[in-house]
Amino acid sequence: MTQPGSAYSLDKQEQNPESHTISVLVDNEPGVLARVIGLFSGRGYNIESLTVSETEHEAHLSRITIVTTGTPMVIEQIKHQLDRLVPIHSVTDLTVLGQPIERELALLKVAGTGEKRVEALGLAEAFHAEIIDSSTEHFVFEITGEQSRIEEFIALMQPLGLVEVCRTGLAAIARGAERM
Amino acid sequence: MSRTMTGAQIVLEALADQGVEHIFGYPGGAVLPIYDELFQQDRLKHVLVRHEQGAVHAAEGYARSTGKVGVVLVTSGPGATNAVTGLTDALMDSIPVVCITGQVPTHLIGNDAFQECDTVGITRPCTKHNYLVKDVDQLSTVLHEAFYVARSGRPGPVVVDIPKDIQFASGLYAGLSNSQHKSYRPPKEGDSAAVEAAVEAMATAKRPIFYTGGGVINAGPAASERLRELVHMTGYPITSTLMGLGAFPASDKQWLGMLGMHGTYEANNAMHDCDVMICIGARFDDRITGRVDAFSPGSKKIHVDIDPSSINKNVQVDIPIVGDCDHVLNQMIAAWKKKKPKVDKPALKTWWDQIDTWRARKCLHYKNRDDIIMPQYAVQRLFELTRGKDVYVTTEVGQHQMWAAQHFHFDEPNRWMTSGGLGTMGYGIPAAVGVQMAHPDSLVIDIAGEASVLMTMQEMSTAVQYDLPIKIFILNNEYMGMVRQWQELLHGGRYSHSYTEALPDFVKLAEAYQAVGIRAEKPSELDDAIREMIETPRPVIFDCRVHKHANCFPMIPSGEAHNNMLMGDDVTEEDIENAITDEGKVMV
Fold first, then answer.
1. pLDDT per residue as tens digits for the range B552-581
2. Which among B139, B230, B276, B505 has the fewest CB atoms less than 10 Å away?
3. Which chain B residues touch A31 with a CB distance below 8 Å?
4. pLDDT tens, B376-392?
5. In which domain, by residue range, is A85 found?
6. Is residue A151 part of a domain?
7. Quick one: B478 exposed, middle or buried, by C-beta within 10 A (0-12, 13-18, 19+)?
8. Which of B124, B283, B285, B560 is the best residue to mutate to test the A interface, defined by the most A CB atoms within 10 Å of its own CB?
9. For chain B, what is the radius of gyration of the CA atoms?
């Protein structure tokens, strides 16, 4: 206990950072996303991924899926701080509930000819990626799946003429019959 | 119930329906329609401040001293940006304020129009919630919701930004009904199992302490009554944060004084050594905890707070209870009565004996002088000479604020208005204006420093205009005293820009404002001068010339633990130089 500490040295506590997927139900009103993002930047939390869309049109509710990392104490703080925002209805930590179903969609533009083009096409089939757009010089692939699978696909496309990638960020839902 | 009227009329109708009597504001282009409506009515009294920051602080003082929501009306652009300091202050100290800002007409928003700023963007992080109203039919709902949000749960400031065209447009006024937010429902009752567990821990405690804060005051006067009942029922010692002073009477024998950086020796040592800590409506702020890893190492901690994000933020607690202090205190009292616990009397006797030895250290003692007024002495005399009167005290920020907290004692809640969280110099005068507006016949004193007070001095003009006999009691040492004290502690006494080489003559300044100026330079003339101030039925600036180098003790140096305090009466220059470690120096 010789090391001096203060309110400012909380991060030095011996807790390992964890990654959590948090699902937040909010009123779909102007500024609500700015509130959430401002909270994360203002309090120095991490955002690994953030996805938002209106999910219940009649009730004007949107669902925000946030992937964040922090020590257990910081993750608790993040959830409480989110819950404190007035337009937020509920905050659910999907990671705590158990292995949530997590999916992401990516679009990959791959340009090339000859063998590389054939190889790209073969890999796309193996990964169940769809061809959305193509010419004699390029493909645009759509792939949906777990993040690790998308990472793998991108890595494989890299040497085959990958031009650009667009990813949606994570959509996640808890398993089972219950509503969150 | 719905009636058609203009947006400006809706604003006034909604304020009246909310029971608002006073609003603090400053006109400008984008709020002229509302000001025009104000001109044509006499239900609401408008107080014209001299700067928008003053309007918010006045509303804070009003809110803090009455328990009502304070209301502010300012214009767009600079009106809104000037209000930001006050809004942040209200957020940090959980003060309910509704601030209505004018905005450029809807079609000009985003056009860099004259006196336009992104008010909702700028105030998003410094309010509890904010609104931009783009549809006049939504205006009344938004206004009522704003009051609901400001006062519910952990209170705070709410901004309602109203474009000028919306103020002119005709719309439906829906009355008070349905004024709740559709989903925002802060908890009231605490979890009964947690309350049971807390009472169980309390009942078996050997070295217990109550540590209470501003949350008790925010929960209303009834919560303070409950707190007294519970503390007396248990017989346990109690300390409080700066924001919580007055919730428990300072004259009571169970009171240990304030805790924290400039708290008492007995309160801090009791916090360090306790075995059960009962925290009610306080948030383990860094001014309170000092070194976190050495904060009350052996204790079981109970934390009652209405804001779940305050729990386990800085300090891990054992029994968290989310709920309104008033409700939870009631639950605790009921559980204690039901349980009829046999407390460990011998252990408690030992504990109180230990506390008495700490008390005997007389930590607030200072060397008084008969040639120069010591600032602590000035506060003590002010307290003694106003005893028994109906007194409200506001402060600025710095040494004088801490001396006021240490030497001016409060027996009732809502009597002490200070900027705790944000530490806003310049809070005191406008806050006093707001307090005096709410309590016209009371004695309202701003215990001030000469540096802070110059930041919002213009509000003396407001006090004079509305015949508000506020007393500005300046402990004038010509230094930014707390800055100077820290320069002694951290920077080898190099007083970089903490001395004000040119100061106004405060007596003449008072006269220039058509207020009354009084000066005291010697201890022998202090009492008469204070009496004269109290008896003057007009605003007074009291220039109390005090010792220029007095420092505020006791003190927990930053980066240190509760049981390692610097004491005032035997501190040497060497102690001061060595008080703060290199690690402590980076902290504020």
1. 999 998 888 888 888 887 677 777 777 777
2. B505
3. 120, 124, 130, 132
4. 999 999 999 999 999 99
5. 10-97
6. yes
7. middle
8. B124
9. 24
